[in-house]
Amino acid sequence: MSDISDITVEDTLVPGRECGECTACCQYLSIEAEELVKLPNVKCQHLKGGGGCSIYSSRPKICDQWYCAWHSMPQMSDEWRPDKMGVMLEFCRENFPDPFTGKAGYRFTILDKEKVATNRLLAAFVGSQILTGVPCIVSYIGEPGELPTPALLNFALAQAALDKNGQAILDGIIKALDASAEQPKQYLKIEDGKLISTKPN
Predict the structure, then answer these.
(1) In what helix (H) or strand (E) does residue 33 lie, and over which residues does it extend?
(2) How far is the C-alpha of 156 from the C-alpha of 152, rounded, in Å?
(3) Does residue 2 lie in a domain region?
(4) What tens digit of pLDDT does each residue of 131-189 get?
(5) For a surface tag, which of 6, 7, 82, 165 has the fewest beta carbons within 10 Å of its beta carbon?
């Protein structure tokens, strides 16, 4: 798939695909809505102990309409559920550099580095997207309130993708992840019901 620009998650949900015990989006995403404000890397106050939302029937619109990419990609097996894969996959539009300017791409939020280090499914998917010119960024799970620093994979992994070298792709993802984690950290805090930037303590 060389162009994902026209994908609308809500219109392409895979029938019967359920979150199950996965609560990745309820923990790692930031939310800023009239009904709910939540920091990144902090469990939502409405997340139940065994999984699931305690206000599901009246949850905010932003929660009702957000799905990870696994929910709308039937070619992906159940192994791609974020908690199983150790990766949360999202469609995204970033300020990508040339030649990716204006393109839609994928964000891979790494939940479990150990699972990623040997994940051939992930390597094959990332490699195929790079070969077809889809921008791919990787980010990590940081401290409570910390904004992830994304790293573009396409340039660094171009040769590994051409060589179809799965281990080199995985090693490159971990290297990019480690490099992004070493960048200056940015944090959010909640003030007057809004998310605002703040300096680390």
Answers:
(1) none
(2) 8
(3) no
(4) 999 999 999 999 999 998 999 999 999 999 999 999 999 999 999 999 998 899 999 99
(5) 6
